[in-house]
Recover the amino acids of this structure.
């Protein structure tokens, strides 16, 4: 009988250690997740169809960051011109409402992507960048003309 009792005590001890170890790991995981900083807002890269759907909402502001020479060839209807290469561009961005939703585009998506990243660092939280830029948008709307 004494061997059975010793064996039972060992089994009980094994399970007690196992349960305590699991509880400690769960507690550490909860502590780590509580200490983890909230994810920073990210730029939403969107396609033409999503861009067109989102720009129909009245609270959305569409910004074209191409040069005046580029915008002379056409723009997305309702877009605001803000020349990425122009003087005062960053100051103009700073004057925008950080809580507004913005859709950005340029010729190909490069300058608008850089603008979106800059806006995120300045505290803007709802920024979308048109992948492929005005080139993709105008190609998708070629039959509309």
């Amino acid at each position: 009988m004494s061997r059975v009792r010793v064996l039972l005590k060992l089994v009980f001890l094994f399970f007690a250690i196992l349960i305590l170890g699991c509880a400690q790991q769960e507690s550490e995981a909860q502590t780590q997740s509580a200490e983890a900083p909230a994810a920073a807002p990210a730029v939403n890269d969107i396609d033409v169809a999503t861009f067109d759907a989102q720009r129909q909402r009245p609270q959305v502001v569409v910004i074209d960051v191409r040069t005046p020479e580029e915008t002379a060839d056409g723009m997305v209807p309702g877009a605001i011109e803000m020349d990425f290469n122009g003087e005062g561009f960053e100051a103009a961005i700073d004057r925008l409402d950080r809580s507004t939703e913005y859709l950005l585009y340029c010729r190909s998506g490069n300058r608008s992507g850089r603008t979106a990243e800059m806006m995120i660092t300045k505290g803007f939280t709802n920024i979308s960048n048109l992948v492929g830029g005005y080139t993709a948008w105008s190609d998708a709307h070629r039959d509309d003309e």
